[in-house]
Amino acid sequence: MGSGSVRHRAGPGVRTAQCPCSRGEPSQPERGRLPVTPRLLLAVAGWALRLLTGEGVPDAIYSMECVACGAESGATDNDAGPAQHWSLSHTGRSPQCRVFKLHAETFWRTEPCRGNPYADVEQRKPPSGVPR
Q1: Structural domain boundaries, residue 77
Q2: pTM of the predicted model, to two decimals?
């Protein structure tokens, strides 16, 4: 088979048609089938998920919610202690409230892995503050 006569595998009972990829033209449709024209290339790129850290970024933001009545403590950065203290005080004021849900928010960032096209783009960017 030459370069223009590549054939794709088909399931049982399905005839194959000449691949249009090398000629850039659609194949002739078989009876009851639509023409096949390659239009989409799918690729897999690696991404990493990392905890966001840095100046001004809290390790976590904590708050507590009463499951019985829906009351909530205030949110605090980097310390769950005030939210826990609030839940004890809330139970002291409302003894029927004894079940609480701790909310902890953290910040995450996705970064392209080596070989990902976006990694190459980020490496070519000038550092922030540098004129172009």
Answers
A1: 61-108
A2: 0.55
